[in-house]
Write a structure and sequence with these properties.
alpha/beta; Rossmann fold; 7-stranded mixed β-sheet; globular
């Protein structure tokens, strides 16, 4: 079984934690708390006749916490850049998040752009066309989702996983490097800090609220 580390990045309040919760638990929480530091979730899916365990890290969006999350870019082979379609400011922030990924993630990381909160269509500030044009500029795929209704949430993670597997199968990605695609029975070389954080997040996952 393969294991992929996926990161979700974007400004605060774009719905990163809600996307994570919807994908891993198929549920949505209306209560709102801002994610402090790092959120974590996992789910096993079957793509292209392979079982894949996705380890998904939700990085905090606040500027004051960005420096704390740099180590968690390392080893990620998939990334989702999220903005809120009702917030033009969060859309404009995608460039900075992309630059962060370029600086700290591996060169082979597969990225997609995601416009969230389509259930708030009457408050939309960023059109679908704008989102598609931005993604095309960087040669990324573009999706629109609603973490509240679940619209396209599974599709995003499934298609991202498929693209990574295709790269592994073609030899474009070496699964023995960077700990981003490994056999699940091999030990991850995690720091004590990362392991402690992961265990804490797993224990508290069911009680987490959305960001």
């Amino acid at each position: 079984m393969l294991c992929f580390k996926i990161i979700i990045v974007g400004d605060t309040n774009v719905g990163k934690s809600c996307l994570l919760l919807q994908f891993t638990d198929q549920r949505f929480k209306n209560a709102h708390d801002t994610t402090i530091g790092i959120g974590f979730g996992s789910r096993e899916i079957r793509i292209m006749d392979q079982n894949v365990n996705l380890h998904i890290w939700d990085t905090a969006g606040q500027e004051s916490f960005r420096s704390l999350t740099r180590s968690f870019y390392r080893g990620a082979i998939g990334g989702i850049l999220v903005f809120d379609v009702t917030s033009r400011l969060s859309f404009q922030g995608l460039v900075q998040w992309y630059e962060k990924i370029q600086s700290y993630a591996c060169d082979d990381i597969e990225l997609i752009i995601l416009g969230n909160k389509t259930d708030l269509e009457e408050q939309r500030q960023v059109s679908q066309k704008e989102g598609m044009q931005f993604a095309k500029q960087y040669n990324f795929e573009y999706y629109e989702t609603s973490a509240k209704t679940g619209l396209n949430v599974n599709l995003v993670f499934e298609n991202l996983t498929k693209k990574i597997i295709e790269k592994v199968n073609s030899g474009d990605i070496d699964p023995s490097k960077e700990n981003y695609g490994i056999k699940i029975n091999k030990k991850l070389n995690k720091s004590k800090e990362e392991q402690k954080l992961e265990n804490t997040q797993l224990n508290k996952q069911k009680n987490n609220t959305c960001c």
